[in-house]
Design a protein that fits this description.
four-stranded antiparallel beta sheet
């Protein structure tokens, strides 16, 4: 699940249903990273801006940070407090120009996190959280930034109906809402110019 290229194109990362996070050399296919810190399926991955870290999200409700060179688990980016996260996480995307991460999942709340912790962890905190956006209908299956990071798009589904929402990054402004797509929307993506969004889902 959640295949992603490193920014330099040398590595391909993905999550697995055996709860592992892996990366392979893009040229040879040789495995270069293996990490088993998650306790449930790993559903999406993304590399940091400088390709030094790999970020993953899972059905175990966590977003984790792994150092690529050493394969070492560094930290949970999301809170570790029981009950702080209301459901599994399905998708993550990184801002194209900085290490800020957009996630979504079963609770229908799109959240923005900074990647690196800058103060000691305390039980009960969610320090890396930058912003939580309004709740979307049902589960969030995919998020995507445009090329300059000024906008992002969210795909969700509830009771067999899909919805796509377009936001302006950095504030709560909802720019467009595409409602009533038949079936869940599983995937959204901007074109390279950032002026068209494609969505795909259960309706084929």
């Amino acid at each position: 699940y959640g295949v992603s290229f490193s920014g330099d194109g040398t590595k391909i990362a993905f999550g697995c249903a055996d709860n592992t996070l892996r990366a392979i050399d893009a040229a040879t296919g040789q495995q270069v990273l293996y990490q088993g810190a998650h306790s449930d399926w790993v559903l999406d991955t993304v590399f940091s801006k400088e390709n030094t870290y790999l970020i993953s999200v899972s059905r175990d409700r966590s977003m984790k940070l792994v150092e690529v060179a050493t394969q070492r688990f560094v930290d949970n980016i999301t809170s570790i407090t029981p009950g702080a996260l209301k459901g599994g996480l399905a998708t993550v995307d990184r801002h194209p120009q900085k290490d800020e991460l957009l996630i979504g999942g079963a609770d229908g709340v799109t959240k923005m996190y900074q990647m690196l912790r800058t103060q000691d962890r305390k039980i009960g905190d969610d320090y890396n959280l930058i912003k939580a956006y309004e709740t979307t209908p049902g589960r969030i299956y995919d998020v995507d930034f445009n090329a300059d990071g000024s906008r992002f798009v969210v795909a969700s589904s509830l009771d067999g109906t899909g919805e796509v929402r377009l936001y302006e990054t950095g504030n709560d402004k909802l720019l467009r809402k595409f409602e009533g797509q038949h079936g869940a929307v599983y995937c959204v993506s901007f074109n390279s110019a950032g002026n068209v969004v494609a969505s795909a889902g259960f309706d084929g």
